[in-house]
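Protein record

Derive tokens from sequence
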Amino acid sequence: MLTRYLQAALRRASYEILEEGPRFYRELQDCPGVYATGETLESCREELAEVLEEWVLFRVSRNLPLPVVDGIELKVREVA
């Protein structure tokens, strides 16, 4: 489920080609603060995937809600 969620979120990323500095910028508007830059589109995508994973883990560790992405909803269940 987590892998499907991450893949679905990454498919929704928007990107820009920058004039200066790193050539590519990508962000996930559904996930505030999740963005990346890179010299190549692939390096930018890889960095975005890492940032997204860290963002999800942080929100889970703080019991914060995660956005529903393409109908996929992640929720943390308490274990008894």
Notes: The first helix runs from residue 2 to 11. The chain has two helices and three strands.
